[in-house]
Amino acid sequence: MELGKQTVQVEFFQERSIWPESRRHSFRHNEHLYEGTYKFEKGKMYGILGEHGEGGGGISWLLSGRDVIRDEKITVFGKEYREGESVEEGWYLGEGIPGMDKTARKEISAALKMSKSSLSVQDIVDKFHLTEDRLDVKVRYFSWELWRLSAAIGYALGKKIFCFPAIDTHMIIEIVRNTAFYIYVEKLRREGCILLLPSSSREILESLADEIIELNNPRFRDLSQFHEIVSSYKEGNIWYQWAVDD
Questions:
Q1: In the Cβ-directed half-sphere of 92, how many Cα atoms lie within 13 Å?
Q2: Of 98-112, 157-171, 203-217, which gets the smallest average pLDDT?
Q3: SS3 state of residue 84
Q4: Per residue in 51-64, pLDDT tens?
Q5: The pTM of the whole model exceeds 0.85
């Protein structure tokens, strides 16, 4: 795949940690980014296969524009980003909406105004099958429909890279079941957007994604130190005072 107007490339030259956080649940977790190059093409959904924290959620976090670039190199549709910049074309699905105390109608309207789109709020509602009688409800009170609303707002802003956060297998299943998943995913695919879904389940990704990228982060594959500690403990060579005093 050659770089150009149809592709996104992320290059990590050294290991580092990144800390994605949830706006809704005040939760942060550590993602360990390892050296490697990843390429994504317009109009496809990519499954990023790896354990929780192995880097998939970190790639989503960076490409959604939620953190600044450091030593890595990110090229988006021919534009190269530099250190200290953040990706402008990206959007964080489910939690990208900044105005949680504003109504859905106001958020969509503000997004269209910001992107100078010729579309109307009703156009967005129709394209993403949003519930019309909830348009004047504050975003914070949305439940499953928040995922579809988030995709709609990102679309209204003209975003082209839609990134799922790192979530467990059960949550992915619930999202597919409860959020009219294929309505917004297929809409974004047809519009030439890139979608990223990090997961530890190969079966899930084989069902949903066009392509799967395996991270194979050595930190998550080398269990030699773990086995060494466990063996030493079982052989009586490690003893923890605090563990036997209770």
A1: 24
A2: 98-112
A3: coil
A4: 989 999 999 999 99
A5: yes
CA dist., res. 95 & res. 142, Å (int) = 12
Q: Give the confidence band of 23 by pLDDT, cuts at 50, 70, 90.
A: low
Q: How far apart are CA 172 and CA 56, in angstroms?
A: 14
The first and second tokens of residue 138, run together, are 């504050």
Query: How many CB atoms within 10 Å of residue 107?
Result: 23
The DSSP string of 126-176 is: HHHT--GGGTTSBGGG--THHHHHHHHHHHHTT--EEE-----HHHHHHHH
d(C-alpha 150, C-alpha 22), whole Å: 14
Q: Measured between alpha carbons, how far is residue 119 from residues 33, 106, 112, 147, 222 in Å?
A: 38, 14, 7, 21, 51
Q: Two tokens at 218?
A: 């050595």
Percent of the chain with pLDDT over 70: 93
Tokens 């109608």 belong to residue: 105
Q: Which residues contact 2 (CB under 8 A, 6 or more apart)?
A: none
What token pair was written down for 243?
């563990």
**DSSP string of 1-50, one letter each residue:** ---STTEEEEEE-S-EEE--EETTTTEE--EEE-SEEEEEETT-EEEEE-
